[in-house]
Amino acid sequence: MASSAVTPPRRPHRWRRVGRGALILPGLLWTLAFFVAPLALMVVYSFGQIDIITFKTTFGWTLENYRQLNNDIYIHTIIRSLEMSAGATIGCLLVGCPVAYTIARSRGRVQTLLLLGVMVPFWTSFVVRTYAWVNLLSNDGLVTRALHALRLESESAQIIYTPMAVTIGLIYTYLPLMILPLYVALERIDTQLVQAASDLGASRFGVFRRVVFPLSMPGVIVGCILVGVPATGEYVIPAILGGDKTLMYGNVVANQFLRVGDYPFGSALAVTLMSLVTVFLVATRSRLARMEEIT
Amino acid sequence: MRRSLPSPTAVFTGLVFVFLYLPIAIVVLNSFNADSALIGWGGFTGKWYSHALSDQRVRGDFVTSVEVALLATGISLVIAVSAGLWGRRAGPRARRLLDASTYMRIVLPEVVTALALFLILRRYDVTLGVPTIVAGHVVFNSAYATLIIQARLATMTEVLEEAAADLGAPPRRVFRRVTLPLLMPAVIVAALLTLSFSFDDLVTSLFLGGTNAETLPVLLLGLIRLHVTPEVNAIASGVTTITLVTFALSAVVISLRGAAGVRTARIEPLMAEEPA
Amino acid sequence: MNTPDPRGDGIAVTLEALERRFGDFVAVKGIHLEIQDGEFFSLIGPSGCGKTTTLRMIGGLEVPSSGRVLVHGRDMTWVPAHRRPVNTVFQQFALFPHLDVFENVAFGLRERRVPKQQLRERVAGMLEQVELSGRERARPRELSGGQQQRVALARSLVLEPEVLLLDEPLGALDLKLRRQMQAVLKRLQRDIGITFVYVTHDQEEAFSMSDRVGIMKAGVLEQLGNPRQVYHRPRTLFVADFVGASNRFPASVLERLPNGRLRADMGPLGVVEAGGSAELQPGSSALAIVRPESMSPDGAGGIGLSGRVIDIAYLGAQVQYTLDAGELGRVIALVAGEDDAGDTVAAREHRFTWPAERMWLVPA
After folding, report:
1. Among all residues of chain B, which has the CA nearest to that of C159?
2. Which domain holds residue C347?
3. Nearest chain A Cα distance for residue C231, angstroms
4. What is the pTM of this model?
5. Residue boundaries of the structural domains of chain B
6. pLDDT by residue (tens digit) across A59-74?
7. Does A201 touch chain C if contact means CB atoms closer than 8 Å?
8. What is the 3-state secondary structure (H, E, C) of chain A?
């Protein structure tokens, strides 16, 4: 056994742990200050009351703001928002499925080009893409004229500033977010399964219905989440394409803060949206995890 | 199997692509359209661009947009790298908290997070301007950047950093000489991405800019609502080009570097020894 | 190049009661070990036995839960890796992919702020020793596995560590290359004279290069000794099996003789006198280990058994016979290959014998 000539240095345990912990500080502080605290304050505000005359807010614990939500106008707006976002989601699904299928079927260079092609519009400026539709859907815009010509819409019907315009804008903006997860899911389906199914006697539609569709479900769900969730809280698209007539939830909430100044009520609206989103995500997360396991 | 006619799904896909690109094409085309009423094609002109470029407000807003983007990117990268490095060694519960925080920052509608920030800033009477916009941008940008950095870190085994320490480098030097250089591709991609997101952002910039700070997208929104058309196309095309180029650059970086840097750190059994 | 030995007592590495726990799991239990200066020492054992963990504790990449690590008498237990005079060659080579060969080898020297001229000379000298001169500007990914291995070696050796740790460095290479590299490593170690501590699961590899080996199982050091000792005088059945193939026959220890040997009753094989593990007491059950190569088919003498030959495998230099020896079970014998005139043993009953000196008893 050796005896040491030098006193051994102390355990540096505590120092090391502190140093390592410090790494999370920038992120932690920023998130607390500019994300958690504001949201928490919003929740508190949602239980407060505003004095219309002095614009001073008193903090009680009242459910008045939430009760106000029950008002017809707001319920109507919420429902319409959900309708439009659901419509956009379905629209994206219908349009996106064939495209995803085509991409999954193609190979090599063509496939890469197609994928890039889908992504590039997504990379162009957001405001630009939405604004372009103002032109196209305005009363003498190309698309409006085309729809009139095809008799899909009556001559006098205006498309711009209607829910339809907003829905088209939503579909246009979020389409890539639906196509990509669909493509990924389709790509993952083993072609041998498809072959086995037809070998066992299934028709083309049968193969789709019983093999392809169920196995691509995770992709469908991811796509619907990626489209549906942000769409519900959209602000820009209804602002530009809906004018001041078609408002979605996001616009109503923003108005309360920026124009009306009723912070408590606005907070209640925002908190409701936040809760809906959170609940929905938590609910689908476990379903999604289980599905991923199966496929 | 070649068919003489393309399949219906292929045709449909083609139509969808037209659908995707038509609006952008029209904006770009119209930005060169001499006809200010934009009814037909009035001839090729660059005057909308020169109008836009000579407009003080446009120039000022461009500078503001760039300022905001650069600041937001810088701060977001610092947060992303430090959080990513911390998350690597953190316990499972801590890691789950980090992941949840990152996820929530991306998934919650921007309207909600921006308005909440607006609320707290107004409550404490903070003047709105570039700093407040940056604060809001960093919240979601740092989340995207964190994801990118974490993805890269996951492919970097710790053995390289152990080797550096074994060869005598203290922790700070290990970071500077090994970790950071290996992380660089991800840092560049994250930077380009956050620059794009910031430059293009509307909701947060609108709500948190107040009267002092106006970014280009906010200006565009106002112009669109006022129906001041011809220059808008030019500005819009300009903004689009910038964001498009930045995204394209990041795609190039991703495909170039890929995982090339890390592969040799793992085992590569080779069949025969080359003559030394 | 001689390694500095501050204390002058010739012990490069001392491990005292070294332990490493991960929660409830004890990876390394109470290891006591002294590694001599200038020796090529190997730690071998099956996967998960704790040999790599032990190595990492010597290198400073892991902190022991208890116990001490001393290098040339200096307590290094709490000294961080970057300040230990010990360097490691990693299994995956761990070459820095963003640096070329020169910069990889120069890495540690740059940390020490070695002046430019000296640095260049030392790197060049080292590259020459590992036969990689001329590849300074190459990137790791352009090199073959063997070349990467040599860069990793050069990178560590250029720092003139007091001890070099090698963690299964040849695991990624194919067989022929591995043999070549084993020779290179052994030669290098002899030339340079630095103490090597080598970890591997390949017993043959360790035996071919090492002065001494330590065999580990489940965190415990089972036996320590030079290859010959360990092979012919294993302390336990595990060691016996790990270092080579073995036939085993049940035996009951009757007494320990004054000359140190044991007398044991081996049932059908009779009562024998043979060497055995020091732990065996009169009355213990034991197993007699007989290596296949100790068995000869010509019935010359000693202890013997008869069995029905059920398989003959011509291995080239040797012929392997598998016998069914009835209640003694299956027996394997390895006999020097004969010319192609045929075997002396055909597929029928045959008697194989071995001398008692070639038998060794271990606890059952």
Report:
1. B167
2. 245-363
3. 27
4. 0.80
5. 13-45, 56-258
6. 666 677 777 767 777 7
7. no
8. CCCCCCCCCCCCHHHHHHHHHHCCHHHHHHHHHHHHHHHHHHHHHHCCEECCCCCCEECCCCCHHHHHHCCHHHHHHHHHHHHHHHHHHHHHHHHHHHHHHHHHHCCHHHHHHHHHHHHHHHHCCHHHHHHHHHHHHCCCCHHHHHHHHCCCCCCCCCCCCCHHHHHHHHHHHHHHHHHHHHHHHHHHCCHHHHHHHHHCCCCHHHHHHHHHHHHCHHHHHHHHHHHHHHHHCCCHHHHHHCCCCCCCHHHHHHHHHHHHCCHHHHHHHHHHHHHHHHHHHHHHHHHHHHHHHHC
